Amino acid sequence: MAKITREELLARYAAGDRDFSGLDLRWVELQYASLRGIILTGANLSNARLFRVDLREANLTSARMTDTILEDVDLSGADLSKSILQGTTLRRSCLTGANFENAILAESGMDDSCLNNANFSGAELCEVSFTRCNFRDATVNINELRGCYLTQTLLPDGEIVTNGIQD
Asked: Where do the H-state alpha helices sit in the chain?
């Protein structure tokens, strides 16, 4: 897995390159970057820090994002299927229409995030914190939310969970 710096990534993206599949981006820090449509299939973004990054329609299929922090990130329409997001924090992020099919999100937090129309089919959601989240029209089996922390969260069926662990 080839290592790449933040500067190289941004320069190549600005030059029109979109495919960064399989690259090692561990510990990278990105702020105020527009990377719409970037392809990061199989990339390693573990321990990365992303703040106000535009990742709309990004392909993060099978990406490793363990212990990654994403704040105010736009992942609308992004494909995160089969990705590993264990221990990841997603705060104040837009995940409208994002695909988390068969992803591992265990022990993660998605606080203050919009999950409208997101697909969580087959995702591992054990011990995920959903505080002030909106699952409107999301594809998620309510049984898959067992053991998750739900506070002021709107479920797909319209139920609002004010505080508790889903059992």
From this structure: 6-14
